[in-house]
């Protein structure tokens, strides 16, 4: 095992520890080198995660695995080189070969990943989780933090919310049983739904997306949630600031007085 392999394994172990801690892990997602540098340099940042939607948008692609996989991995590699913190990569549904893309991601410095189930048949989705964890272990990163995502709420449509919750619990349990250390259930979940998920899965097993309408970070920590990340929300916030600057300039103003020089 090389020094690089040892470093990656240690970073994965640290990322896993951060998820297993009773302290809620918060991760503001990044999409290129400069955002990775800015977020890494803010006091309190303990890990980084990419946002696939944001990376694709910044390079002119729509979300949904429209960006070529090699282009996605190349951008993730640049981000990995810009930080010494543990890095998790959003790799959508695995681009048709989840174990192989995990091997590629580890090869550029990634020690965790989000992978969507895209509501595939449960047996198929759980088998993919097992195959990914096996590939990570074979690559020398047994503590790889696969954040196995279920799209039960994202793709719920007009289904009965109780059925959606039951589906999310069933799928999440299957992914944990297949070896994933944590599961990701994105959606505008209320406190009752979060509580039901944590009760079913155990504390520090559930990760959520930080969108308006979910319980506060303090309450999520009390409930036993492992992590909150922000997906494309961080890019939307940055682009909102840009749009506001343009509007201010058009109105005869200029840059805000509290602007920071970050690059």
From TrEMBL:
Pfam families: PEP_mutase. This is 2-Methylisocitrate lyase, PEP mutase family. One of its GO terms (molecular function) is lyase activity. It comes from the Bacteria. Keywords: Lyase. InterPro entries: ICL/PEPM, Pyrv/PenolPyrv_kinase-like_dom, Pyrv_kinase-like_dom_sf.
């Amino acid at each position: 095992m090389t020094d690089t392999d040892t470093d990656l394994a240690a970073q994965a172990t640290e990322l896993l520890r951060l998820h297993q801690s009773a302290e809620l892990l918060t991760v503001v997602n990044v999409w290129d080198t400069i955002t990775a540098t800015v977020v890494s340099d803010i006091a309190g940042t303990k890990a980084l995660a990419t946002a696939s939607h944001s990376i694709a948008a910044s390079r002119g692609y729509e979300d949904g695995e429209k960006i070529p996989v090699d282009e996605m991995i190349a951008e993730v590699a640049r981000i990995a080189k810009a930080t010494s913190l543990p890095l998790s990569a959003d790799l959508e549904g695995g681009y048709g070969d989840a174990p192989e893309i995990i091997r590629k991601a580890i090869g550029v410095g990634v020690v965790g990943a989000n992978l969507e189930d895209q509501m595939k048949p449960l047996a198929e989705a759980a088998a993919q989780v097992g195959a990914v964890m096996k590939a990570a272990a074979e690559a020398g990163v047994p503590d790889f933090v696969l954040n196995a995502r279920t799209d039960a709420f994202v793709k719920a449509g007009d289904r009965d919310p109780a059925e959606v919750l039951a589906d999310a619990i069933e799928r999440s349990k299957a992914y944990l049983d297949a070896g994933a250390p944590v599961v990701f259930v994105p959606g505008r979940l209320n406190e009752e739904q979060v509580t039901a998920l944590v009760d079913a899965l155990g504390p520090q097993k559930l990760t959520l997306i930080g969108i308006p309408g979910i319980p506060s970070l303090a309450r999520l920590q009390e409930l036993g949630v492992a992590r909150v990340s922000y997906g494309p929300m961080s890019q939307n916030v940055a682009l909102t600031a840009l749009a506001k600057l343009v509007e201010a300039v058009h109105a005869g103003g200029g840059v805000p007085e509290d602007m920071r020089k970050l690059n």
